[in-house]
Amino acid sequence: MSRLPLLLLISGLSLQGCADSIPDRLGAPIEGYSHTSAAINRFSVNGNGGPNLAPYGYGGGQMCCATLPVKWHPGLTVVVEWEKDPDPHASAHWPPLGTDGYRAAYKLHAAKYTRHRAVAAVAPYEDLGLVNVHFLPCNQVAVSAGATYPGRPDYPFHYPQKMQEPATCPKP
Fold it and tell me: Is residue 129 within 8 Å of residue 28, measured between CB atoms?
């Protein structure tokens, strides 16, 4: 057998590694929206941090990054974890900052923070873009990751900025 076919095969296989490849996954910036009266002290998407959010607040600056598929597929989910302050305006009635009284009030207040975790479906997207996490009443979250943003007609969610907690939340 001639060495030429074998040499061509090896050359062809070695050149495959030089071809530009399109990545399957990319890192996308994370942003959040709180639609409730609680503050979101911190949150993460698949372990990567997002900004803190004021009550009924949005944005807080983008953080980097949640790694997601370049193209959406059915069944795509992310894990969102967050810490919530249910009474973010309590400090208005505390003793002066830097005092023992303030530190004691903060310690009692921080003990009321709640921590949550949800596996959330990612809304369908054509092109990967900004990862937006919406914090909703009853400790629910909604996640988008497309190249669109809230307020646009093609955005998958149209929640009012201010939502009230119902008297009772549905059981998970």
Answer: yes
Q: Round to whole Å and give the CA distance between 148 and 94.
A: 42
User: pLDDT tens digits, residue range 72-96?
Assistant: 999 999 999 999 999 999 999 999 9
Closest C-alpha to 45, from 137, 118, 97, 129: 118
Beta bridge partners of 34: 135
pLDDT per position as a tens digit, 117-166: 999 999 999 999 999 999 999 999 999 999 988 989 999 999 999 999 99
d(CA 39, CA 116): 13
Terminal CA-to-CA distance of the chain, rounded, Å?
A: 68
Q: What is the pTM (predicted TM-score) of this model?
A: 0.83
d(CA 109, CA 95): 13
For 120-163, the three-class secondary structure string (H helix, E strand, C coil) is EEECCCCCEEEEEEEEEHHHEEEEEEECCCCCCCCCCCCCCCCC
